[in-house]
Structure formats: C-alpha cells, structure tokens
Design a protein that fits this description.
Layout lengths: L4 E6 L3 H12 L4 E7 L2 H11 L3 E4 L8 H11 L4 E6 L3 H11 L3 E4 L4 H12 L7 H12 L14 H11 L4 H7 L4 H14 L15
Parallel strand pairs: 1-2, 1-3, 3-4, 4-5
Helix pairs in contact: 2-3, 4-6, 7-9, 8-9
Length: 210
C-alpha cells in the first residue's frame, strides 16, 4: 500500500480543524497525523511526528502563525508549510513566503483548491495566487524602490500587534496571546505609531484597554 502524506493541522478553531481533518482524511493519499491550536504545541508535535506538511493558520490561541512557520523552517526544513487563513493574501502572502511557507490560500477558497494547494507544496512546489506573484515580480523589477503601503513598513510582529489591537484586544490580552511581555507590546505600539505617522494619534497601550 502506498504511504499516505502526513498532514499536521494548526488552527485556533476546533470546528475548522475538524472540517479540515474530515476533508483530508477522505482522500486516499492524505492523512492528518496531528492537530493543535497553539504554536508551542504545534512545534512540539511537528518535532515528534515529522509530518510532510503543516497547514497553519496565522491566528492561533497562543503564539504567532508566522513565527511558527519560521520555527518549522529553521528546525524542520523538510516539513513543508501551507498557510490557510482568513487574512488578506495581498497583505500577508509575501510575509508568509519570506517566513518560509511554500504556499498561501484563503479559507474561503473551494475545498478542491485547498487539497490542490496541499498536494502542490508537499510535492515541492509553491502555491501562491497570481496577484501575489505579480506583486513580488513588480518589487524585483523596481528594485524594491516602489513606495510601499504604510502597513508594509511594519515588521511581522508589529503587524500582528496592530491587527490584534484593531480587533479590540487590550494590550495585556495581546501580550498573553502572543506570549510576549507587556513591556514588549508597549514598545511595538510605539514603533507602530512612528512607522504609520500616528504621532498625533493615541494608541492606548494600557494593560486594561486598547
């Protein structure tokens, strides 16, 4: 019998993991070998199980999906990663690629396309939309001199802090979710304010409120 491709699912919603597991396990060539909702547990599972592919959401119960992709790339380079997220690919696709992901696909895509993406990255290919590929090509052609969008000036960590604050989380909640100290989150808020030219706008980084 042909050995099945082992998939690790990393998503903070149990129902999404269940849906993905059912989708994948119905295929004759794929099987889910593990599931997790946090980056720390996912990395430990990956080290123990060594899957062929990790399907990773960017928003996790604890930790960062992008940081997990980087950790997997550094510690388990043989494990391919596919980002499956609700976040806009035009904003996060290039970041995921730089982090080491072999593909990026939105959760709203058809199930068949998600399976195609998994098979593409496990076969050693890349799975990114034509729009992201064009975006990257433009940067190469222009030598990186094109005027970036303001949010592109933010680091991966700063962008995640900005996104979580925008969701209404307090600075303390952001620090807990990202496994960072409150002091570090406060420093990120200061840099976000500076990079986005928000010197006259208050980003409230008190522990209890946004």
């Amino acid at each position: 019998m042909t050995q099945k491709t082992k998939i690790l699912l990393v998503d903070d919603h149990p129902l999404v993991r269940e849906w993905l597991a059912n989708l994948i396990n119905d295929e004759t060539d794929l099987e889910v070998c593990g599931q997790s909702g946090t980056s720390q547990e996912a990395l430990a599972l990956a080290i123990r199980l060594v899957p062929d592919c990790a399907v990773v959401d960017l928003s996790l119960e604890s930790g960062s999906g992008l940081e997990l992709v980087k950790d997997l790339k550094a510690q388990l380079p043989s494990v391919k990663t596919l980002v499956l997220s609700m976040h806009d690919e035009m904003l996060y696709g290039e970041r995921a690629m730089r982090a080491g992901a072999s593909g990026y696909i939105m959760k709203r895509e058809a199930t068949g396309k998600i399976l195609d993406a998994i098979r593409t990255v496990t076969a050693g290919g890349l799975f990114y939309s034509a729009a992201v590929n064009e975006q990257l090509a433009q940067k190469v052609v222009q030598g990186g001199t094109a005027n970036p969008m303001p949010l592109e000036e933010l680091s991966d960590r700063e962008l995640e802090v900005f996104h979580l604050l925008g969701q209404g989380l307090s600075a303390r909640q952001v620090s807990e979710k990202m496994n960072l100290s409150f002091k570090t989150v406060h420093a990120y808020c200061s840099r976000i304010r500076e990079k986005l030219n928000l010197a006259g706008t208050k980003i409230n980084s008190r522990p209890d409120k946004v």
